[in-house]
Specification:
The longest helix has 70 residues. This protein folds into three domains: 137 residues, no CATH class; 66 residues; 126 residues, Histidine kinase-like ATPase, C-terminal domain (Heat Shock Protein 90). The protein is α+β, with helices and mostly antiparallel strands. Helix 3 runs parallel beside helix 5, helix 5 packs antiparallel against helix 7 and helix 9 runs parallel beside helix 10.
Length: 388
């Protein structure tokens, strides 16, 4: 929560600074006697493109449109002043907006558009001194402004390109994580089906031996074979459906766990000054589908791992299991304040929750994470069990 507050404060300060320097542009234009409507139009278009909240941004307002439209208006502003042979002002507000748009173009535009939009923003910025000096190469001051502009353009584009490369690396890492999780799910499928098929084989052998002498006792054996086959087919159908669904959002191969092993997992996690409470409701059955039990185990495993990585100061961790005949709810909460004694290299790559979400959503469930009302963190997974 503290980090979110810092980010919000930094974002608010940046917006305030951008608006302040934009006001400076209007004051400069007013003092020089130049018409206010050209800089107002350019600044309004640029500020709208930069500050429009992403959650409310319409689909048609693409990064390439956000970057190119204000740059085009800035070009027209410059060209109009040159054609009218009248000096026009340029100020820090328009320069700051164009730098922000250059950043958006390089980092967020599609690859085919990034170069075009980036050059348009950079060109519009480097052309602004021509409004006042009438040329970009004569005199002493114009070349100095151009040099400063080139430095700002280079720094902004370089930073945006670096962050874009980090985004690409993270995208690749997430794709590999999801692929690894699907491999783990396929390994689970092998375990589930092998377990049930082995049982079917044993029951079939028993039925063959009982058929000649005790045919009246075959019904329970055949019923057991039918049940095992049904469970095997259900597990196979669900898991293969997951592997075929490439739309679902995916870690290293880990051992298959069951609900019974969660108690051992919680017990092994406890350390001096840190208590782990397992609150398993009495109506949680032991015979839930294997894939549900595995997902529940992984939820607890990942949550406890994150507590150790990011909230080592937590004194109490609670693992709760609830069941209502249709779904299993697994909740892990802690009372940590975010303190950790682990080195940064031990914090992980941040992909554990990606793999966990892949497994949970693959079963048709939901995964929720976030801070608690007072202090600490909560991870909650809802897993459908296929019950009526």
């Amino acid at each position: 929560m503290r980090l979110a507050w810092v980010r919000s404060a930094a974002r608010g300060a940046a917006v305030g600074a951008l608006l302040a320097v934009s006001v400076v542009d209007l004051l400069v234009a007013s003092d020089t006697g130049y018409a206010l409507w050209p800089p107002v139009i350019v600044l309004l278009a640029g500020l709208t493109a930069v500050l429009w909240p992403s959650a409310r941004r319409p689909r048609w307002l693409t990064p390439q449109l956000r970057a190119s439209a204000p740059a085009l208006l800035s070009f027209l502003y410059t060209a109009g002043s040159l054609l009218r042979h009248r000096n026009a002002p340029f100020g820090p507000g328009e320069i700051a907006v164009l730098l922000c748009l250059l950043f958006i173009a390089v980092r967020h535009c599609p690859p085919r558009w990034a170069m075009v939009c980036g050059l348009s923003c950079a060109g519009a910025l480097l052309a602004t001194p021509a409004r006042y000096f009438r040329t970009l190469w004569a005199g002493d001051e114009a070349p100095l402004y151009e040099l400063v502009g080139l430095i700002l353009v280079g720094l902004t584009a370089g930073l945006a390109a670096y962050l874009r490369s980090l985004d690409y690396r993270r995208t690749v890492a997430i794709a590999e994580t999801r692929r690894g999780e699907r491999l783990a799910i396929s390994a689970d499928l092998h375990d589930f089906v092998a377990h049930h098929v082995t049982g079917i084989l044993v029951q079939t052998q028993m039925a063959r031996m009982m058929a000649p002498d005790r045919p009246e006792e075959l019904d329970p054996v055949l019923a057991a074979i039918e049940g095992a086959a049904t469970q095997a087919l259900a597990s196979m159908r669900r898991t293969v459906g997951v592997l075929r669904d490439t739309r679902s959002p995916a870690s290293d191969l880990r051992p298959v766990g069951e609900l019974a092993t969660i108690a051992d997992l919680a017990k092994g996690f406890m350390s001096p000054g840190q208590q782990v409470i397992l609150d398993r409701h009495t109506d949680v059955p032991d015979d839930l589908p294997h894939e549900v039990q595995t997902a529940a185990f992984r939820v607890v495993q990942e949550a406890l791992t994150n507590v150790r990585r990011h909230a080592a100061d937590a004194t109490q961790v609670t693992v709760a299991l609830r069941y209502d005949a249709r779904q299993l709810e697994v909740t892990v909460t802690d009372d940590g304040r975010g303190g950790t004694q682990l080195p940064a290299a031990a914090h992980g790559g941040g992909f554990g929750l990606v793999g966990l979400r892949e497994r949970v959503t693959a079963l048709g469930g939901e995964l929720h994470t976030g801070p608690r009302a007072g202090q600490g963190w909560e991870l909650r997974a809802v897993l459908p069990t296929g019950g009526n």
